[in-house]
Amino acid sequence: MKKQRYIALFSLSLVLVLLAPASVVLRIALDQTQGKRAARENFARLTALLAPVARASDLSAPGLRKDLERFYASSPSLLLVSVYERDSGVRWRIPARSDYLPARENEAAIPQPSYPPQSAYLLAAPLSSDVSGRLAVDALYTVLPQQAVFVAFRDAALGLGLLLVLLLFVILLDPARPRGQSAPSPEEEACAEDPSLEGCDSIYNSPLEDDFDIPALSPEVAARLPEEESLESKALDAAAVGGPGGLFSPLSGLGWESYLEARLDSELSRSASFEQDLSLLLILQDGLSPDKASYLSLAAAIGDFFSFKDLAFERGPDGFAVILPNIDAEHGLRMAEEFLRKATATLPAGSGPNPIFMGLSSRAGRLVDAVRLSHEAGAALERAKTEAGSHIVAFRPDPDRYRIYLASKNL
Question: What is the overall mean pLDDT for the chain?
Answer without folding.
Answer: 79
